[in-house]
């Protein structure tokens, strides 16, 4: 027979774990609100009014392929089969964060081989794509812009 003194802490722990991972079922370490802000800043200088340009939408500059890889996240009560569902979600900061979370759950890894999967790695994943995150961003003008913006954001966070 199980004693109540052991059951209660186990139930509390299970509830806490379920609560902290309820949005997706997986906890991504180092994906903090500060990291989201930097990923957003790197993408569009976190322009929440950014619509869609060249097939990329919202403050995180999300493409339809990225959205699909992330699990086809939509706004509440929307249908992922609806033609513009991805655009509407990508243009909404909160919904877009859920897209980013889904993408990083799928592709998250230590891209720069420093032994830690952190916001820099997440930025590299977003910059190079999930399967190509180990490529240096410094090789392209867009990649260099991302690196500058990421460094600027890190300075603001640490200040």
From TrEMBL:
InterPro entries: Invert_lysozyme, Lysozyme-like_dom_sf. Residues 1-25 form the signal peptide. Keywords: Antibiotic, Antimicrobial, Bacteriolytic enzyme, Disulfide bond, Glycosidase, Hydrolase, Signal. The keyword Signal applies. Its EC number is 3.2.1.17. It catalyses: Hydrolysis of (1->4)-beta-linkages between N-acetylmuramic acid and N-acetyl-D-glucosamine residues in a peptidoglycan and between N-acetyl-D-glucosamine residues in chitodextrins. GO terms for molecular function: lysozyme activity. GO terms for biological process: defense response to bacterium; killing of cells of another organism. It comes from the Eukaryota. It is an enzyme of class 3 (hydrolase). Disulfide bonds join 35-119, 38-153, 40-46, 52-57, 89-95. The keyword DNA damage does not apply. This is lysozyme.
